[in-house]
Amino acid sequence: MGTVAVTGSAGGIGGAIRRRVEAAGHRVIGVDLRDAEVVADLSSPGGRAAAVAGVREAAGGALDGLVVAAGIGGSTSAPPATVVRINYFGAVALLEGLHGDLVEGELRAAVAISSNSATAVPHPDLTLVEHCLAGAEEDAAAVTDGMDGEAVYALAKLALARVVRRFAVAWAPDVRVNAVAPGPVLTALTRAALEHPVTGDLIRQYPVPLDRWGEPNEIAAAVWFLLSPESAWVTGSILFVDGGTDALLRPDGI
Fold first, then answer.
1. Taking the chain, what is the end-to-end CA distance rounded to the nearest angstrom?
2. pLDDT tens digits, one per residue of 163-201
């Protein structure tokens, strides 16, 4: 039995990932604001440091796998700056902070939860992405002032997908790093987005060739594949689990 840390483990997708990993016979160290083995707020450097220390202590020095699934939606009441702080900088802090523990584990694999909004939403200005990749958190937070939260969400997820590609090369062959990019999934976060006065109608019109929204357990299955030995020769990949939306919008995107 191995040990896998999952951030956002009390949420819809994070909870489904937890159950899938446990079903495979592994122990899970959950990280969340509540109902988790490690309770921490990933919106601040101090909270991230506490999360890393808590996971490391619980794991005992060797971590087999890591899933950074914690995140908030762009339609949340939180300021847009908080979206990028949690969804990008929180995820990256856990990936970097636990890299050494993953090297000592068996699976030696990490998976980040990006989003197909990273490619589905037009991005005329990538300044926020550039600040994220440069590690300039305060500059990134400042750029979000006056931005729509959904745009910040999409750009933060784009930056996360790109940093995963960079980590995959830098950390090979010791640790594999991949990302899953879900489309609209039936979670509490999505339901909140549906109630947004601007984006709600747009989300309802979101084109999905398979003609339905995803379920959390379908995202969890993709995450487990990327964690498991069955994907031992896969790193740096962004796996779209979105019912075909990315293929529809970007047929020549490869």
1. 38
2. 999 999 999 999 999 999 999 998 877 777 777 776 678
